[in-house]
Every structure is written in structure tokens, then in C-alpha cells.
Amino acid sequence: MFEFSAYVQILTSYTILGGVYGLTALGLSLIWGVMKAVNWAHGDTLMVGMYTAYWTVTLLGIDPYIAAIVAFLLLGLVGMGIHLIAIEPVIEKPGGHEATLLTTLGISVILESVALILWSPNPRSFQNVYKSTYLQFFGMRTSVAEAIAFTVSIVSIIAVDQLLKRVKFGKAIRAVSQNPIGARVVGINVPRIRLFTFGLGVALAGMAGALVATFYPNIRPLAGYIWDIASYVVVIFAGLGTIYGVIFAGIIIGITEGLGAIFLTNAYRHILVYIVFLLVLLLRPQGLFGKALRRV
To answer: Which domains does the chain have, with CATH numbers?
Structure first.
């Protein structure tokens, strides 16, 4: 039997993980909110972010958080490439929003297959000083890597919110999200906004992957699907288009997953998450924060 402090420690770890869930879901929420497109390769781009951090740290010896910046920039370019190949050619055609599910599913298979060929299915991880250094507070302990990942997730969400509220590009994103036809009328280049929004969404996923890689012990080609499902759960749980909602929903999902690990064992921890998720869909289909928080 675990002691009470052990339970609290588990919940602390999963709360921090929930913050990263929120950052991952933020990119998906932007893509979904602006284009109504289903990006089934979102988790796989996070996986590429993990490997970007792994290889830049192990081969170049750079700091993992510089690697996170590299992952953000690289995955932004990858995201724009995916958009040009799989999203833009179909998005405005009849049934185009549904077609993005199939096109991005194809991208997902390609990314996983290439990763398996290049890096094998064997899990990897890398040691770093942030992972092996711990912070103590109120009798609980967390690694510096986890604390930084959580903090960067919060800061990134605030930064995206400010981008959407105060920067001309962000206001254009909101306009396209709310009324793409009206946005064209007032001179906004809608395809360009879609391109950069998709790139930003994937860049955030790539940065999240690099942050996770600093403490996650299981970097492998098929790791993306877990984050894919978690991202969709968080977005729907929060309410489509919410900004701060995704971080609160991510933390709630993380805590729920921690409770599942305590009461159902680690192997079945996701069951409790999906039970809560189904209850939210049944009782509040617009999401927990669908009306309480500003939409994109």
C-alpha cells in the first residue's frame, strides 16, 4: 500500500504532465478552430519533436531547451509542408473538412514509417542535468525538467493568447476562424493565414515533444498516438476554440489520469480519463469552458 505522500507525489507528476497535454492541445485547437480540419498527424509531429531534441542533444551536445527552440522552428516548417500537401488542396472542396482526416492519417502513417525505418522501434532517452536535478516543495519532489516543461507550457499559452488579442496576424487568425468569407472581403489572405496557423499549431506540438523528451523515458516512433488521443480529449473537454481552457482541461485530464494510476494501476489509468470524457460529452457537449472563456 502506498502512503498518502506517495499518492500526492503521483498526482503532482500527472498534474505537470497535464500542463504539457494543454500545450499539445493548444496547437490542435488552433488548427481545428481556424480551419475545422482534423489533423490526425498531430501526435506524430510531437514524436518528431521528441526525436529532434534527442538527436540535437546527443549529436551536437547542445542544451535541451535550445533543442526545444530548434524543434519549434523545424516543426513549424514541417507543419507548413504538411498543410500544403494534405490540407490546402482539399480544404475548400465539398467534404474537404472531412477529407483532411484521411489526408492527415496518411501523413501520420508516413511519419511513423519513416521514423521506424530511420530509428528502429527501440525506445530511447537521453540524460541531462535538468532530469537528474530535483525540486522539493511541501514534501513533494519533481525534476527541474518537469517543472520547466510545465512553466513553458503555461507561458506559451499566455503568449498565444496575447498574439491573438494584440498582434495584427493574431487578429487575422481570429477573423478567419469566425468568418472566412468576411475575412476575404476585408482583404485578409485566407490561404496564407491557414498556412501559418497550421505551421504554428504543429510548431507548438514539436516544442511540446522536445520538452517531454527531457524527462520522458520512452521516445519511440509509435509514441505519437497516445498524445494524439490525449490532445483531442483535452480540446473537446475544454471546448473548441478556447485558449486558457486547454491548460485547465489538460491539468484536469492529468489529475484524472493520476487518479486512474492510483486506483486502477498504471496500465489501466486511461480508463478513468475516458469515463470522465464521455460524461462531459453527454452532459456538456460544448466542453467545460465553451462559454466561460473567449474563443479564438
So the answer is: 4-283 (1.10.3470)
